[in-house]
Amino acid sequence: GYTREELMAAISAGMPAKRWQHVEGVMESAVILAKRYGGDPEKADLAALLHDLAKFWPIDEQEAIIRDNDLNTELLAYDKQLLHAEVGAFIARWDYGVGDQEVLDAVRYHTSGRIGMTLLDKIVCLADYIEPGRNFPGVERIRELAETSLDDALIAGFDSTISFLLEKHKVIFPMTVLARNDLIQNKT
Ligand code: DGI
Ligand code: FE
Ligand code: FE
Ligand code: FE
């Protein structure tokens, strides 16, 4: 197995410095959210460390990994930005030996979301939106909501992504809409 330090070295070596800063920001935010909302800070830290490991891999390589390993080929018909989450979870399992299914799922669903998101899924997905380096329009409002409601903040995050995709006339992966609806229908 890899130690956390070895994982950090391997993952940071596989991406530009700017993206590694983002990963460190997501780790920091994910641990804060885990402590705030009763999650597991160690799992949040590990999932955040892993979440974008494939983000800068060539798209054709990401597509090949999905095809050759019977992963979710439905993704191939949508925005290529969705692929790195699926690939990252696979690589975390088979190249880095991560066996914790909760952590692997949080990596796998950090971009698309899913119906029935676990606490850890929500923490990693929201941390990805609000880490200190993010500066997209509306991020301050999502950070404010994150102080008091994990679900409301995450709904606002998905709303912002969906609005952005609509604005650009891009296709939307249906699971993102289902994830957002499910959060609204089941929030506590
Ligand atoms: O990898 P990051 O940039 O840190 O963030 P991410 O993994 O959440 O990727 C988000 C990008 O994916 C964002 O620029 C929007 C794009 N995207 C394209 N189609 C979809 C999508 N995101 C979601 N959630 N659903 C889509 O259908
Ligand atoms: Fe990502
Ligand atoms: Fe995200
Ligand atoms: Fe990210």
Automatic annotation (TrEMBL):
Residues 19-133 form the HD domain. It catalyses: P(1),P(4)-bis(5'-adenosyl) tetraphosphate + H2O = 2 ADP + 2 H(+). GO terms for molecular function: bis(5'-nucleosyl)-tetraphosphatase (symmetrical) activity. The keyword tRNA processing does not apply. Its EC number is 3.6.1.41. It comes from the Bacteria. Keywords: Hydrolase, Iron, Metal-binding, Nucleotide-binding. SMART domains: HDc (SM00471). Pfam families: HD (PF01966). The keyword Hydrolase applies. InterPro entries: Diverse_Catalytic_Enzymes, HD/PDEase_dom, HD_domain, YqeK. This is bis(5'-nucleosyl)-tetraphosphatase (symmetrical). It comes from Paenibacillus puldeungensis. The lineage of its organism: Bacteria, Bacillati, Bacillota, Bacilli, Bacillales.
